[in-house]
Amino acid sequence: MTEITLHHYDLSPFSEKIRLALGHKDLDWRSVKVEAVPPRPLLDVLTGGYRRVPVLQIGADVYCDTEVIFRALERVKPTPSLYPTGEGLSKALSLWWDRATWKPAIGVLVDYIGEHLPEEFLRDRKEHYLGYDISKDAMAPQMPAYVQQMTAFAAWLDDMLGEQPYLTGDALSAADLTCYHSLWLLRANCGAEAIDSRLRLSTRLTDWMDRVAGIGHGTSTEMTSDDAIAAAKAATPVDGFDADDDPSGLHFGQRVTVTPDDNARVPVTGQIVAADAQEIVLARDTDEAGLIHIHFPRAGFEALPA
């Protein structure tokens, strides 16, 4: 099997859920650390300019967004599955959690550590990523609302758990990794005791977090961005996903743009080489890395004729 490479940075909660997915599947992987703030010129070669992190690379196949990364890992190693009770509930719960908790979680985070965030990070998130100011002073007026929202959502997770060990049943799923990550971000950076008290996290919920954390990250080896480019150039796209069933009538060979529909709205342009209702793949030919196939999920993205 071609090496699995994850482009990520330590503080990224979305990277944490993929690191845990790699641990869940007991996979060996190469770790390429990228900057939290662009530019990331070598990563842009692989992604066509997509600016969110993490990005998964398997040879000359590149996966953008955690949902399609999960799907790729299922193809690489189906067992243990990230969807033990089926995809629908886990995917719906994951999409809701990511979007509903992102802003309130940032609000709580900056209340504790906002003064330590670099100015360039704050400026980038305002001007190029989120579209709003996440500095401590800017978020402060809404702090009661952010705490209220996170407390309510955490209570919903507690109720979902009931007497079962994981959110969708007896086995860990992608939903657990997603719903874990923003709480992990807060507890890891603001102090577990402080967050547990402020958000009224139950023992049942923190025990669940301990079970998820216990999965670990698998076995990783450091790799440079230059080496990742070289690996892509030495490979050809070989992912097993192959479909021509776009629900909107897009077709093979058509030039399209794919853009996130919520934030970091940087379009990636390429030619369609595979598409169905869940995934679309664009081909891009690059001088630095040769032919690349870039994979995106359909939920949360807009694929439109270029």
Automatic annotation (TrEMBL):
Pfam families: GST_C_2, GST_N_3. The keyword Transmembrane helix does not apply. InterPro entries: Glutathione-S-Trfase_C_sf (IPR036282), Glutathione_S-Trfase_N (IPR004045), Thioredoxin-like_sf (IPR036249). GO terms for molecular function: transferase activity. The keyword Magnesium does not apply. Residues 2-81 form the GST N-terminal domain. Keywords: Transferase. Signal peptide: none annotated. This is Glutathione S-transferase family protein. It comes from Palleronia caenipelagi. The lineage of its organism: Bacteria, Pseudomonadati, Pseudomonadota, Alphaproteobacteria, Rhodobacterales.
